[in-house]
Design brief:
mainly alpha; about 60% helix; about 0% strand
């Protein structure tokens, strides 16, 4: 039995391509300006958003390793 990995290269992901990187940068810049312009509306709910991050990190962060 041959257990070596196959020699066919996989296709690169979209987010690693030049257009994917450019799109990601534009999304980050747009999100920055959106948050900057609406900070007055966002600031009262920031503590609740931080508290909401805790269960989300537990939900999505513990799935690596395949032990579940």
């Amino acid at each position: 039995m041959n257990h070596s990995p196959s020699s066919t290269p996989s296709a690169p992901s979209f987010w690693r391509s030049k257009s994917g990187i450019a799109l990601g940068m534009l999304l980050v810049i747009g999100l920055f300006y959106l948050v900057r312009e609406h900070y007055g509306h966002i600031s009262p709910i920031l503590p609740y958003l931080i508290l909401l991050l805790c269960p989300l990190m537990h939900l999505f962060g513990h799935h690596h390793g395949g032990r579940h």
